[in-house]
Amino acid sequence: MLRLYSTTVFLFLSTIVLAQPVDRFTDSLKKKLASATTDYDRMTTLASLAMASFADHELAEKYMGQAVEVAELSRDRRLMAMIYLAKGNRYMNAPGLSDNLDRAITNFHRGEEISKANNLSALLVMNYKKLATAMQMKGDAQKAMFYSNQALSTGSNSENDTARVEGYLAMGGTYLQMNEKLLSFRNFLQALNAAEKSGDESLLKETYGYLSDFYASIKAYDTAIDYRMRVYEMNKKKWDINQIISGDYEIGDLYWKNKQQDMALRMYEHAIQLADTLHYELFKWDPYFRIFNMYFNNEQFVKAKNYLWAHA
Questions:
Q1: How far apart are CA 310 and CA 291, in angstroms?
Q2: How far apart are CA 43 and CA 69, in angstroms?
Q3: For residue 249, with 0-12 CB atoms within 10 Å meaning exposed, 13-18 middle and 19 or more buried, which class applies?
């Protein structure tokens, strides 16, 4: 009953936040689009606009359709494979909506087809990895394992660092979902070894994230926080504000699970402060709900109610 009530309030909070303006953030993306000089820049900015407009389904579809058009007309196979991967990700981020998970799978298959035909090993592995995740979400463990094996096999036979790391992460992630902790950990360590040898910061950050998830799954929350903090510090050095905000959520969640409510609150409030600097109200949605949910699930009902109405 408590969970149902919490979910109902979450939907209420969603309508509050989604009703607020997001023009200043999307305007900055539109200016970036207007000054874009390459197909890559036009495609990625349109895809970003689609993600930023997720509250308006028709507008988001329009932007993503334009991004696909840019990639297709360029005839650059790498751009084409990238945009179908991005389009699949967008659908998979909202799997509860009718047919979205199936649409995601269709786009990942299109990305797979283009990548395979053009020897784009890293993108091929990434599409396999996403297909494995989608199959996990559909409850099909056999197909999830099939695509994870495809990712690992392709990555292991490639000289591409990204392909190798993503292959190990795909397999480790599937084993983690199957509760095969030892096999999962072995693959994550292989990914870490390959990422460290590559010196690629983005691969290191992704691998640290998976290791954090692994340690959280065995309730070793301090170690999970350590790995998330590594990612957080790397993002702070580059001042990647979107990723810093995501890090605030993730680290806050781990502190909450570790029964450190004050630290969780500190991280969530920091995310809200950064969202204010971007003038993008949707970024406040997650921390608002997390703070309310933390109070509510800790049976601090008065605090939960007061927090809700203070932000209504």
A1: 12
A2: 8
A3: middle
CA–CA distance, 56 with 14 (Å, rounded to integer): 13
Three-state DSSP class for 55?
A: coil
What pLDDT score was predicted for residue 96? 67
**Considering the entire predicted model, what is its pTM?**
0.87
Helical residues (DSSP H) of the chain, grouped into ranges: 2-18, 23-34, 39-52, 57-74, 77-92, 100-117, 121-137, 141-156, 161-177, 181-198, 201-217, 221-237, 241-257, 261-278, 285-297, 301-310
pLDDT digits (tens, 9 = 90+) for 46-88: 999 998 887 788 999 999 999 999 999 999 999 999 999 999 9
Q: In this structure, is the dihedral angle defined by the CA atoms of residues 23, 29, 34 and 35, taken in order, positive or negative? A: positive
DSSP 148-209: HHHHHHHHHT-S-HHHHHHHHHHHHHHHHHTT-HHHHHHHHHHHHHHHHHHT-HHHHHHHHH
Q: Greatest CA separation found in the chain?
A: 59
- Spell 51-73 as b/e; 16+ CB within 10 A means b: ebbeeeeeebeebbebbbebbee
Closest by CA position to 85, among listed 66, 63, 58, 113: 113
Are the C-beta atoms of 167 and 154 separated by less than 8 Å? Answer: yes
